[in-house]
DNA sequence: AATTTACACAACCGCGGTCCA
DNA sequence: GTGGACCGCGGTTGTGTAAAT
């Protein structure tokens, strides 16, 4: 009766993903597409439960992820959509291509909530905070003043005093976002800019037609998700120049996140290299009439997760 | 230089709906 | 029709990093 359990949870690894695990998962998904997540860990050789693999893929490894800070426009969309939909993050995320529900949820909790509160708006109801609530907040602020100053002033604390209108705060945020987004890399945008490329215009190929690069073997004994960036570094291709800030970025910051995107673009941009490399390693593949050899650039069709030729 | 503190984000947990045997 | 597994979602926690002391 019923299905097999997704995992027995015995001997399964938890916590941050290692570069090695990322590689295995990426290779597996690229080879087989997204199928039954329950089978993924076993087939991919991962000591993770399917759920964990799904989360890692959807929230971090998917090639169409935008990453980086939300733009001013995106942030305003999130606020508007939240006013309509509430905490339905996945619904909100569906209106923001390249953004995950987790990412939006995090951004909401860490940035937007504070911003709205500062503006005197209740982030739950999107209505002005009641007088009593505002008094409570004032009391809390008074208490904070009496308590010795915290060691670190938050980003929010560094901003100006609360504005009286949403628009003024948005304007303020715009300036910040301009600075941030100008430094960020958007692979989807870049892909769309390639000779007017549009995923709707290209034929799809079946997953079995995909030649997936065997990830370069590495001897690194990484032990945290931080090492994923090292993994990305290891995937450099000879002709490729990484963004100047790539090597200076640290593990968990937004720079690094945006670099994951550039990784993907370059990952796809380097298919010909990969194919050649792969055919060397796998003679069987070398003899196949690969569509990739004719069309070295590929991308994902966001909806179906089949693969598009670029 | 070491320690403390706050922040940001990745990952986990648990629940509910849906699907399947 | 029923029970149990799968999947997706939202809430929460854990961890790494930067800044302040």
TrEMBL record:
It is found in: Nucleus. GO terms for biological process: carboxylic acid biosynthetic process; regulation of DNA-templated transcription. It comes from the Eukaryota. Residues 123-167 are annotated as: Disordered. Residues 9-61, 62-116 form the HTH myb-type domain. InterPro entries: Homeodomain-like_sf, Myb_dom, Myb_TF_plants, SANT/Myb. Residues 9-61, 62-112 form the Myb-like domain. Pfam families: Myb_DNA-binding. The keyword Hydrolase does not apply. GO terms for cellular component: nucleus. GO terms for molecular function: transcription cis-regulatory region binding. Its main location: nucleus. Keywords: DNA-binding, Nucleus, Repeat, Transcription, Transcription regulation. This is Protein ODORANT1-like. The lineage of its organism: Eukaryota, Viridiplantae, Streptophyta, Embryophyta, Tracheophyta.
């Amino acid at each position: 009766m019923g299905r097999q359990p997704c995992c027995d949870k015995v001997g399964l690894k938890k916590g941050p993903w290692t570069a090695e695990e990322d590689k295995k998962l990426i290779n597996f998904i690229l080879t087989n597409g997204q199928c039954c997540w329950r089978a993924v860990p076993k087939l991919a050789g991962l000591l993770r439960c399917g759920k964990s693999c799904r989360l890692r893929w959807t929230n971090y490894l998917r090639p169409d992820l935008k990453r980086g800070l939300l733009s001013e426009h995106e942030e305003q969309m999130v606020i508007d959509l939240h006013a309509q939909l509430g905490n339905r993050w996945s619904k909100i995320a569906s209106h923001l291509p390249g953004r995950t529900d987790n990412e939006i949820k995090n951004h909401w909790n860490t940035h937007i909530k504070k911003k709205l509160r500062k503006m005197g708006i209740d982030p739950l109801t999107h209505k002005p905070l009641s007088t009593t609530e505002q008094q409570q907040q004032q009391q809390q602020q008074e208490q904070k003043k009496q308590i010795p100053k915290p060691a670190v002033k938050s980003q929010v604390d560094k901003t100006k005093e609360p504005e009286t209108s949403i628009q003024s705060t948005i304007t303020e945020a715009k300036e910040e976002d301009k600075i941030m987004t100008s430094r960020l890399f958007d692979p989807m945008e870049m892909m769309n800019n390639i000779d007017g490329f549009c995923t709707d215009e290209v034929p799809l190929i079946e997953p079995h037609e995909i030649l997936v690069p065997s990830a370069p073997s590495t001897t690194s004994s990484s032990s945290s998700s931080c090492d994923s960036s090292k993994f990305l570094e290891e995937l450099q291709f000879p002709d490729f120049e990484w963004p100047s800030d790539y090597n200076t970025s640290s593990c968990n910051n937004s720079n690094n996140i945006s670099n994951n995107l550039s990784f993907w673009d370059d990952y796809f941009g380097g298919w010909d290299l990969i194919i050649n490399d792969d055919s060397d390693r796998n003679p069987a593949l070398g003899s196949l009439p690969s569509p990739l050899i004719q069309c070295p650039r590929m991308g994902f069709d966001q909806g179906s997760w089949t693969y598009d030729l670029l």
